[in-house]
Design goal:
The chain is α+β, with helices and mostly antiparallel strands and 90 residues long. The chain has 2 helices and 4 strands. The chain has a two-stranded antiparallel ribbon with strand order 1-2. A two-stranded antiparallel ribbon has the order 3-4. The radius of gyration is 14 Å and the shape is globular.
Length: 90
Amino acid sequence: MAAFLVEDGTGQLNANAFASVEYVDDYWAGVNSDWAGDTASKQAAIIRASLFLSNAYTWKGYPTKQRNQGLAWPRYDVLDQYGNGVAADE
């Protein structure tokens, strides 16, 4: 499996995950749902989800490092549904 590297908001070229295993574990615990598996299985699932989200949509705005980042986010010139600017580090 590829190295597991969580995007930290700087537009890392080799990032392949939007969230850490710990973050996703906390999320699933908070919604009282089972998120079973070993760390490697969880990392693989997070990588698949992150790549899907990066490639399945035409996102608003522009990647902060154009083509030199691993995932679709972070981005700039993004407006939310109400026309408010979304900071690149959100």
